[in-house]
Design brief:
five-stranded mixed β-sheet, single chain, 554 residues, 3 domains
Length: 554
C-alpha cells in the first residue's frame, strides 16, 4: 500500500459519502468499466478481447461539483487492493453485476489527485517531481525485486515490473488532470511537458489495464498533437455515454426529497423549488440533470440558496465576458429573460486566458457549468446560476445600459408596489434615452428582456416565473413571494401595440389571480395583496404605458 499505489484515501472518501444522509448510488457505472478490465489469455485472444471490450483510455470532463472526484474514488476503492471494500459495495447496485466477485479489490490501482501540490509550490518541476518520486517510491516498496532505483522514470519502473513480475497491469485513476493549467507558476512549455509526461506514462504502455481520467477542460484543448489521442473523451454536451452517472436525475432527486420529508416533516424546501433552483443542465441523451452538490447542500441545510461558490478567476462569470462585452451583452440580457441563444459551442475552445469571440466565451461558460447547451442553443440553466448573472448585471458598470437598467430595479419594484406609474414609466422610457440595439421591440421577447432587467432585484424576495399557468391561461410574469408570504403577489402582463388597460382586462378575464389561491382544503399560503400590472409598448409612437390595480387587498 502506498500514497498512490492501492492508496486507502479513495476508500475513505467514498466510505464517508456512502454513509451520508443524501447518498445516491451510482455504482452502475462500475458495470460499464468491468468489461474493460476482464482478464485476457494469449496474444491472439488478447487482441480479440481488447477489440470487443472497447477502448481502455477514458477521459470524462464535467463542471466542478458534478461528482467527478466521487466517481474516481468509487472506481479506485472498488477495483483497488488498498482496503477491503466489500462492506461498502455489497449493498449497492454493483453487487448484482456478474463481475462483482471477480473484480472487487482484485486490481493494482494507481490513484493520483493532481490538484494536490507541495506546500509553497512555485514551479512546475517541483510539482511534477513530487508526483514521480511518490509513484516510484510506492513501486519500489511493493516490488523490491524489480531492480528499481530512485530517480528512475515511472514508465521505466512500470515496464520493469511488467516484464519481471508476470505481466502485472495497473489501473490508473487520475483526478483533476487539468489542475496545473490554472496555476500561475505554469508556463506554456510546462504545459507541453506535462502532456508529454502523461503520454509517456500511459500511451501504448503494456502495463496499462485501464486509464480513467477526469477534469474540467477537454484534452483536445491542451494536447495539440498526438500525445493524448488514445483517450476517448466524454463531455456533458457532446457525448451520451456515462451521462447518467454525473448529476442527479429527476427520479434520484425524488428519492432524496422523500427522505428529506421523512426526516423534516415541516421542511422549508419544496420539491418544485428544487427543480427551479438546481435543475436545467442538458445532457447529450436529451435528458436533464440537477447540480448534485447544490441539491445535497439544500436538503442538508433545509434551505434554498446559491451553493455555487467561487474559487478564483476561473469561477467568476464576469471573467468570461469582459473580454468582449459588446459581443455578448444583448445575448446576456435575453438569457436573463429566460431565452435560449444560438451559439456554436466547441468545448475545446474553452481557453480561460484567451477568450476573444462570442462563441469562445459561451463555450467556456458551458464547460465551467455557467450555461447549459442543447441543440445549438445556450441558456442559463436554473435559479442558482441566474442569481450569479443577476449579481453580475447589478455590479459591473462596464456592462453599460444593462447595469444602469438593473441598478434601477429596486426603484421599479417599490414604484410597482406603491402604484407609482410615473416612476415606472420613467425607468422604462430611460431605455430609449440610450442607443440600445436590444430595444428595437420587434417582438415581445425584447420587451420581456427589459422587464426582467428592470425587476432584477425582485428575485431577492420573489420567485419570478415566466409564462406560468394561472386561471384560464398562461400569464407573462408571476412574482411569488418566497421570503415573506405577506408580501404583495404580482401578476404582470405585457402588450405590444396594445394598451396597458387591455393587459389588466386579460388578467381579470382569465382569472390569473387563481395562481395564488390555496389548494382545496389547504390554508392560504399568500396573505398579502395581489397586484395586477399591465405594461404596453407602442412601436409607432415608441412609448410605454403602465397601469397597476389591486385585485385582492390584505
Amino acid at each position: 500500500m502506498g500514497l498512490y499505489l492501492n492508496s486507502k484515501k479513495p476508500y475513505t472518501i467514498y466510505r464517508d459519502v456512502v454513509s451520508s444522509t443524501y447518498f445516491v448510488d451510482k455504482t452502475a457505472m462500475l458495470g460499464e468499466l468491468i468489461p474493460l478490465v476482464e482478464p485476457v489469455g494469449n496474444e491472439t485472444e488478447r487482441g480479440r478481447r481488447a477489440e470487443s471490450r472497447g477502448n481502455k483510455y477514458i477521459c470524462l470532463t464535467r463542471p466542478r461539483r458534478f461528482g467527478k472526484t466521487l466517481a474516481a474514488s468509487m472506481i479506485a476503492s472498488f477495483f483497488g487492493r488498498g482496503r477491503d471494500a466489500r462492506g461498502l459495495f455489497e449493498r449497492l447496485q454493483i453487487c448484482r453485476n456478474d463481475g462483482f466477485e471477480r473484480h472487487l479489490n482484485r486490481h493494482d490501482v494507481i490513484y493520483i489527485a493532481f490538484n494536490e501540490a507541495p506546500a509553497g509550490c512555485a514551479d512546475y518541476r517541483q510539482y511534477i517531481d513530487r508526483i514521480q518520486e511518490r509513484m516510484v517510491s510506492d513501486l519500489m516498496r511493493e516490488y523490491p525485486n524489480a531492480g528499481i532505483k530512485p530517480g528512475d522514470a515511472p514508465w521505466d519502473v512500470l515496464n520493469s515490473i511488467y516484464e519481471l513480475e508476470q505481466d502485472i497491469e495497473f489501473i490508473f485513476v487520475l483526478d483533476e488532470w487539468d489542475y496545473i493549467f490554472y496555476q500561475d507558476f505554469v508556463t506554456d512549455s510546462d504545459k507541453k511537458a506535462y502532456t508529454g509526461f502523461l503520454s509517456a506514462l500511459l500511451k501504448d504502455q503494456p502495463y496499462v489495464e485501464l486509464a480513467y481520467m477526469t477534469g474540467i477542460l477537454p484534452i483536445a484543448k491542451h494536447s495539440s498533437g498526438s500525445e493524448l489521442n488514445m483517450f476517448y473523451e466524454y463531455t456533458m454536451a457532446t457525448e451520451e455515454k456515462y451521462s447518467e452517472f454525473f448529476g442527479f436525475t429527476d427520479g434520484e432527486v425524488d428519492g432524496l426529497y422523500a427522505k428529506y420529508r421523512s426526516l423534516n416533516p415541516a421542511g422549508r424546501v419544496s420539491r418544485r423549488e428544487l427543480r427551479i433552483w438546481y435543475d436545467g443542465y442538458h445532457i447529450r441523451s436529451g435528458g436533464r440533470v440537477y447540480n448534485p452538490r447544490s441539491v445535497v447542500a439544500s436538503l442538508t441545510n433545509n434551505n434554498l440558496g446559491s451553493y455555487w461558490t467561487s474559487a478564483g478567476p476561473y469561477d467568476e462569470i464576469f471573467y468570461y465576458i469582459r473580454h468582449n462585452t459588446d459581443a455578448v451583452r444583448e445575448d446576456i440580457a435575453r438569457m436573463v429573460s429566460g431565452a435560449a441563444i444560438p451559439a456554436r459551442v466547441r468545448e475545446y475552445a474553452a481557453v480561460s486566458m484567451n477568450l476573444s469571440t462570442r462563441d469562445e466565451i459561451f463555450s467556456a461558460m458551458v464547460v465551467y457549468g455557467f450555461l447549459s447547451y442543447e441543440n445549438g442553443y445556450v441558456s442559463i440553466p436554473n435559479r442558482e446560476l441566474m442569481d450569479q448573472f443577476d449579481g453580475l448585471l447589478m455590479k459591473e458598470a462596464s456592462l453599460g445600459y444593462l447595469y444602469r437598467l438593473s441598478s434601477n430595479s429596486e426603484r421599479m419594484l417599490k414604484a410597482t408596489r406603491e402604484g407609482d406609474t410615473d416612476t415606472m414609466l420613467e425607468i422604462l422610457e430611460y431605455a430609449h434615452s440610450t442607443e440600445i440595439p436590444l430595444l428595437n421591440y420587434n417582438n415581445e421577447t425584447d420587451l420581456t428582456a427589459i422587464v426582467n432587467l428592470v425587476y432584477l432585484s425582485a428575485r431577492n424576495t420573489y420567485e419570478v416565473i415566466r409564462e406560468d399557468k394561472g386561471g384560464k391561461g398562461y400569464v407573462d410574469f408571476i412574482f411569488r413571494p418566497c421570503i415573506n408570504r405577506a408580501d404583495d403577489g404580482i401578476i404582470l402582463e405585457l402588450k405590444i401595440d396594445g394598451s396597458a388597460q387591455e393587459a389588466i382586462r386579460q388578467i381579470k378575464d382569465r382569472q390569473y389571480a387563481l395562481a395564488f389561491a390555496p389548494k382545496t382544503g389547504a390554508p392560504a399560503f399568500y396573505t398579502g395583496r395581489i397586484l395586477a400590472v399591465g405594461i404596453a409598448y407602442d412601436r409607432e409612437t415608441k412609448k410605454h404605458s403602465c397601469v397597476t390595480e389591486v385585485l385582492k387587498d390584505r
